Amino acid sequence: MTSSGADSLTDVPATASSGVDGPLPDAVDREIASLANALVGRIFTHYQARAAELSLSMPEAKALGSLDPERSLPMRELAARVHASPSNLTVTVDRLEARGLIVRGGASDRRVKSVLLTEAGLALRERLDERMVTDHPASRGLDAAQRATMLDLLRALARKSALVDM
Predict the structure, then answer these.
(1) Which listed residue, of 7, 37, 66, 67, carries a Cα 20 to 30 Å from 126's Cα?
(2) Helix, strand or coil for residue 23?
(3) Residues 57, 51 contacting (CB under 8 angstroms)
(4) Residues forming a β-bridge with 114
(5) At 161, is the secondary structure helix, strand, or coil?
(6) Closest CA to 93 of 123, 72, 70
(7) 104 phi and psi, to 5 degrees?
């Protein structure tokens, strides 16, 4: 029983507007945010553990995941994709290059440094991707119908947030 006398969140009157498709109770918005934040934390921990299994730091794993195996990527663009400064990214790129996972090259403009994923880098990224799916916190313990519902919800969020081109 909550302090307002409601037995569950469904008993809370829908009086507050969340800015989403119509009014939602503030309590529901707070619980969604809290549960989503907790899930993000578990996903981050999962990602760290899976990267570490392959002897990758988080910045290295993020860089590998951001590179296109078909074309080189300017360092500035890679830095933007992994949310790092180009100077900080240099250390990450040095480590990946030393392991033979990427190669540096010049783009058509010699002033622009670029990086390209090697076959070894692509293979390691694919292993990381496979490991990430194994026992993933967002789907762990869900049956097929629940996973399908989760996928529908995530796609809807991605469309509304313009995070993914559909």
Answers:
(1) 37
(2) strand
(3) yes
(4) 74, 105
(5) helix
(6) 72
(7) -95, 150
Tell me which amino acid residue 39 is: L
The CA distance from 72 to 106, in Å, is 9
Residue 74 is classified by DSSP as: E
E strand map for 86-154: 102-106, 113-117
d(CA 116, CA 74): 9
CA distance 124 to 127: 5
Q: Report the alpha-carbon angle 53-56-140, nearest 5.
A: 50
pLDDT digit string, tens, across residues 94-145: 999 999 999 988 555 555 689 999 999 999 999 999 999 989 999 999 999 9
CATH class of the 21-156 domain in this structure? mainly alpha
Cα separation of 61 and 40, whole Å?
17
Q: Are 61 and 96 in contact (CB under 8 A)?
A: no
What is the pLDDT at residue 137? 96
CA nearest 130: which of 38, 65, 68?
A: 65
Q: Where along the chain do its domains lie?
A: 21-156
**C-alpha 87 chain-centroid distance:** 23
